[in-house]
């Protein structure tokens, strides 16, 4: 869908993949970037940079001005934060403020990047867009903030005519994970031989470039107010670590740990992170989330958007290759 695009979160993992996909087909792209953000992912791309923050309404209005399409992918994505209120302000109130700016500036069409974190779980099964979910089910400030932000968008579609389609990526991996994301950190640790054990959980693994293409398909074909899971293959954590071991010539971890004894370790790691700075290597919320196999179906996106994804093995291989290129994996 041709137009002038504003992409938020474009210096990040998913956002930069979306920008590359837009430029590849010849679209004009403006990106929203914080003044002090790491711009490595867009440094060599032909984009216009608008400086601003989700907490700064004036900068958002200026960034949106003159754009016909908006892809809002920016979010504070961390499993643990020392100040949950700041995450809520960025993810929830920042989304509300940006959507109001888009309405005021007459943006024709919007894709809002939510997350499978907003969806329900099916014990022993696979969840989809209609799996029941409530705020009280959400573990941790990230999942809670994304749930509330998606509710903001859905309400504005119904009450204000916001022309938005919602997409729910699962667990993207691949090139451009500069921070890296929590999943990227796990891949780096496993590929470096620093994960000798695992817990019984599961994830839906998808190549980040497939997620980016899914955003473009949602912009073109998605129904206003609907949400679409952009996922890949469902794998247990043992299978994910086994594939990473195969890719790196290492032995896969064989020790499956019970969760209960890890909680005191997580509490201590969080306390140390508060005192010394940085992020804890294991968190209480992370352990709580791992109780479920977070398996999802992309059948709706495949049916309505023509969405397709490559294999999890290919996605993990791309991630390991990229982390090797950055020196994070030897």
How do you describe this structure in short?
The chain is an alpha/beta fold and 330 residues long. The protein contains 11 helices and 12 strands.
Descriptive overview:
- The protein is an alpha/beta fold and 330 residues long.
- It has helices at residues 13-24, 57-64, 84-104, 140-160, 182-191, 208-221, 237-248, 262-276, 284-289, 299-305, 312-326, and strands at residues 4-8, 28-33, 48-51, 69-72, 109-113, 164-169, 171-173, 197-198, 202-207, 227-230, 233-236, 255-256.
- The mean pLDDT is 92.
Largest β sheet strand count, sense and barrel closure: 7 strands, parallel
Helical region count?
11
Indicate the multimeric state: single chain
Distance linking N and C termini: 41 Å
Helix and strand arrangement:
Layout: E1 4-8, H1 13-24, E2 28-33, E3 48-51, H2 57-64, E4 69-72, H3 84-104, E5 109-113, H4 140-160, E6 164-169, E7 171-173, H5 182-191, E8 197-198, E9 202-207, H6 208-221, E10 227-230, E11 233-236, H7 237-248, E12 255-256, H8 262-276, H9 284-289, H10 299-305, H11 312-326
Parallel strand pairs: 1-2, 1-4, 2-3, 4-5, 5-6, 6-10, 7-9, 8-12
Antiparallel strand pairs: 9-11
């Amino acid at each position: 869908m041709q137009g002038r695009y504003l992409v938020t979160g474009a210096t990040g993992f998913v956002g930069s993949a979306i920008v590359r996909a837009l430029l590849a087909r010849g679209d004009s792209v403006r990106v929203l970037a914080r003044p002090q953000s790491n711009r490595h992912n867009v440094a060599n791309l032909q984009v216009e940079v608008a400086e601003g923050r989700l907490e700064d309404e004036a900068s958002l209005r200026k960034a949106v001005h003159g754009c016909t399409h908006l892809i809002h992918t920016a979010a504070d994505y961390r499993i643990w934060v020392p100040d949950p209120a700041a995450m809520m302000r960025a993810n929830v109130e920042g989304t509300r403020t940006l959507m109001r700016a888009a309405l005021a500036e007459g943006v024709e069409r919007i894709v809002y990047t939510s997350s499978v974190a907003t969806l329900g779980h099916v014990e022993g099964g696979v969840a989809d867009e209609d799996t029941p979910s409530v705020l009280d089910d959400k573990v941790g400030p990230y999942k809670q903030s994304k749930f509330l932000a998606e509710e903001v968008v859905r309400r504005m579609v119904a009450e204000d005519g916001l022309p938005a389609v919602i997409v729910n990526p699962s667990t993207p991996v691949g090139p451009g994970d500069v921070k890296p994301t929590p999943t990227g950190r796990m891949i780096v640790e496993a590929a470096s031989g620093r994960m000798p054990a695992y817990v019984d959980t599961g994830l839906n693994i998808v190549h980040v470039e497939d997620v980016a293409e899914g955003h473009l398909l949602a912009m073109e074909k998605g129904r206003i107010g609907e949400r679409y899971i952009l996922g890949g293959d469902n794998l247990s954590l043992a299978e994910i670590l086994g594939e990473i071991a195969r890719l790196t010539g290492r032995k896969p971890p064989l020790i499956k740990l019970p969760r209960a004894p890890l909680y005191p370790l997580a509490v201590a790691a969080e306390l140390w992170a508060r005192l010394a700075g940085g992020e804890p290597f294991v968190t209480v919320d992370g352990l709580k989330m791992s109780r479920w196999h977070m398996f999802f179906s992309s059948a709706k996106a495949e049916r309505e958007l023509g969405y397709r994804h490559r294999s999890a093995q290919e996605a993990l291989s791309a991630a390991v290759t990229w982390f090797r290129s950055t020196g994070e994996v030897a």
